[in-house]
Specification:
Elements (H helix, E strand, L loop, with lengths): L1 E2 L9 H21 L2 H15 L4 H8 L5 H12 L5 H12 L6 H15 L3 E7 L5 H15 L3 E7 L6 E6 L2 E6 H22 L7
Helix pairs in contact: 1-2, 1-5, 1-6, 2-6, 4-5
């Protein structure tokens, strides 16, 4: 289960499309080598944990002005001996094609593709406050039973929903938040008041 920052920004459609192409190559190569889970974990850890802590390396990866040979040297320094050959090869392919700065997007696309092949659906759970692992596991299990599908969950925190839960699976949103309930209540009260005015009912009631 992972955490996500909802303020990370919108998806760049062009980047997403290119990322899917490389993601498919990564997943197929990892499947052929029998190490898909390990490769995705290694590349994900590099993109999300290592590079943010090594800004110099991240800058080299992302810069179009840095020659592929120099990027290859950085890859060998950062990854060789630490990552599986398939993971290292994937990085070198991205470097040769000037796509190393898209590593995070490629990993995300690869994880999505892997889930699809395994029959899993990616789901985003939004709560007003952080949940501990026990609560997360319980919530995920309940939603999996409700939708009759295994899920790969990502958790986000949004205080504006006040309480309850919002779950997004693909293009479907299940909104059980307090904020939405209050909005619905407000809408019903508003409609009731309109009808009262139309019918000449002027008693003070909500």
């Amino acid at each position: 289960m992972s955490d996500h920052n909802p303020a990370a920004g919108h998806v760049d459609i062009a980047v997403d499309r290119i990322a899917k192409i490389y993601a498919q190559a990564v997943v197929e190569a990892a499947d052929a080598a029998g190490c898909r889970r390990e490769v995705l974990a290694e590349l994900g850890g590099l993109a999300r944990e290592v590079l943010p802590k090594v800004p110099q390396a991240a800058a080299v990866f992302a810069s179009p002005k840095v020659p592929a040979e120099e990027k290859a040297a950085v890859i060998d320094k950062v990854a060789k001996g630490r990552l599986r050959p398939t993971s290292v090869n994937a990085l070198h392919v991205l470097a040769r094609h000037g796509r190393l700065g898209m590593l995070g997007a490629v990993v995300t696309a690869a994880e999505r593709l892997a889930d699809e092949r395994d029959g899993r659906k990616q789901a985003t759970f939004t709560t007003a406050v952080p949940l501990d692992d026990t609560a997360r596991g319980r919530v995920v299990a309940e939603i999996e039973r409700a939708v009759n599908s295994p899920l790969t969950p990502t958790f986000t925190v949004d205080p504006s929903i006040i309480g309850g839960l919002v779950v997004r699976i693909g293009d479907t949103i299940y909104d059980q938040s307090v904020a939405t309930s209050l909005n619905r209540l407000g809408g019903r009260l508003h409609q009731r008041n309109i009808q009262a005015i139309q019918n000449g009912e002027y008693s003070w009631r909500t």
